[in-house]
Amino acid sequence: MFSDLGKYLSDAGTRADIGTDLVDHIYLSLLPLVFGVVVAVPLGWVAHRFGRARGALLGVMNIVYTVPSIALFVIIPVLIGSQILSPVNVIVALTIYTTALLVRPITDALDAVPAHVIAAATAMGFRQWRRFLAVELPLSIPVLAAGMRVGSVSNISLVSVGALIGTGGLGGLFTDGFSRRYLPPIIVGITLTLVLALVVDLLLVALRRALTPWTRVQGVAVQ
Amino acid sequence: MIFADMVTWLTDPSHWTGPGGVPARVAEHLLYCVLAVLAAGLVGVPLGMFVGHTGRGSVLLVGASNVLRALPTLGLVSILYLIAGGGTVPVLLGLVVLAIPPILAGTYAGLQDVDRSVVDAAKGMGMTGRQLLWRVELPNSMPLLMGGVRSSMLQVVATAGVAAFVGLGGLGRPLLDGLRVLDYGQVVSGAVLIALLAVLLDLVLAGAQKLVVPRGLRLIAGTAGRRRTQRRVEEPVQELVTTGGQQETGGTRA
Q1: Residue B253 — pLDDT band, cuts 50, 70, 90?
Q2: What is the CATH number of the domain that holds A95?
Q3: B194–A contact, CB cutoff 8 A
Q4: Which residues form the ABC transmembrane type-1 domain (chain A) (predicted)?
């Protein structure tokens, strides 16, 4: 098995192809993570701010999150009119999952900002929007980062399902290996997926630490 | 127009009969899912109870369930199929493997989440370890445990669809077969049926969740919910319970 693996990886062309798949995999999984945050923060704000929208919004997010990826990948074209084999479907579908995953924690985090902190910020002259961006949102970063860690691992694992509709990053190695009854590409694909998930997770932890210096000064997480 | 093709496919009576018909595919899909989740429950619940009650092996458990969450399902079913040299059984085993972590994590998180003062009170009343586990910790962990079962079911419904790629029956069949012959009406019909099945199964389990959660817990649900929210915000790094809603146990997605 290991000699097979060595033989498979010894070919420079194969290595270049794997590199391309890896790069595809990275943008297919991480773009939706960024888009998901951009969509989920305003939605979380709406759910936090308007009690009436809250139940409906969180309910819809829960239902959306139950739809399996293979199904969503091919339903997206019906909804937005894209080609059924287009990479856009994977990116849109994963953005939807990331959003569905993040809205509830963001809402909870915004709810949990203590009233006295908001009162203090208001008293210092912060208007609503600046207060949200400079006080409430930063205080929600730990929760947002925790949600993003789950979302990034989930996206990285899901991209490969896209190989079934022709856009799967490293997932292409699985369909390739399966159709040739050949294990090395599958082993390489699984290994690289796990390593990528780990590296992105560590980067997100580092990013959270960099963005929330106050949690370390006090030695405890700020509410 | 794909939507019109879908309606045409779904309203064709010939697609609703025989071994490849919609009812037969739904039955196959359901059978795989229920079997896999039951098997996973038999492994995951006792293991989760052990780890949650004794506190032993929790680091290993969190690590292992994180790794499994990152495991690409398509790669897993392909490699199991090739190593075993074909057949349905290895693929079903793969489903069980993927169904275990959410149940395990849910059970463990449920036991961890039991109010310490409740555990202390039970000990103070003279309960033995076994009584504490079965009569206090387990009933109190039902909400999170059932959350884990729901995540697990969703994971399996999705993965069973993907596993049609290596020859498993179920609703992934019409979807993938349709892709092969570029019959997009069939593809989207399969997808919509999978999505409906997932949503309905989750509703059924949500109902079951209401039934098995002890009445006392439901009565204090309002205050408990607020308390848990607050704590979740204070301890954002506690991976197992940070993801909100029914994904509370950090279940995998597929």
Answers
A1: low
A2: 1.10.3720.10
A3: yes
A4: 22-204
- Is A83 within a domain? yes
* Sheet strands (E) in A85-171: none
Interface A-B: count of C-beta contacts within 8 A: 192
- B66-81 residue pLDDT tens: 788 889 999 999 999 9
Query: What distance separates the 2 farthest-apart alpha carbons in chain A?
Result: 69
ipTM: 0.88
The per-residue pLDDT for B33 is 96
**pTM, 2 dp:** 0.86
Q: Which residue has the tokens 């359901």?
A: B30
**Helix pair A51-66, A12-49: axis angle to 10 deg:** 150
User: pLDDT tens for residues A67-96?
Assistant: 999 999 999 988 898 888 889 999 999 999
Q: Report yes or no: A155 and A29 within 8 Å, Cβ to Cβ.
A: yes
Type of residue at B27? A
Instruction: State the smallest CA–CA distance between residue A122 and chain B in angstroms.
Output: 22
Residues sharing a CB contact under 8 Å with residue B193, sequence separation 6 or more, in sequence order: B22, B25, B26, B171, B174
| Residue ranges per structural domain of chain B | 30-169+215-249
Cα–Cα dist A186/B67, whole Å: 17
Contact between chains at B236 and A178 (C-beta distance less than 8 A): no
pLDDT digits (tens, 9 = 90+) for B11-28: 888 888 888 899 999 999
Q: Which residue of A has its CA nearest to B183?
A: A84
| Whether A143 and B233 lie within 8 Å, measured CB to CB | yes
Domain count, chain A: 1
> Is position A111 within any domain?
yes
| Residue pLDDT, tens place only, A139-160 | 999 999 999 999 999 999 999 9
- Give residue A189's domain range: 2-217
Task: Annotate A181-210 with b (16+ C-beta within 10 A) or e (fewer).
Answer: eebbbbbbbbebbbebbeebbeebeeebee
How far does A108 lie from chain B, in Å, by closest CA?
7
| Domain B30-169+215-249 in CATH 1.20.1440.230 | no
First to last CA, chain B: 28
- With an 8 Å Cβ cutoff, is B179 touching chain A? yes
Q: Which residue of B has its CA nearest to A162?
A: B74
Q: How far apart are the first and last CA of chain A?
A: 52
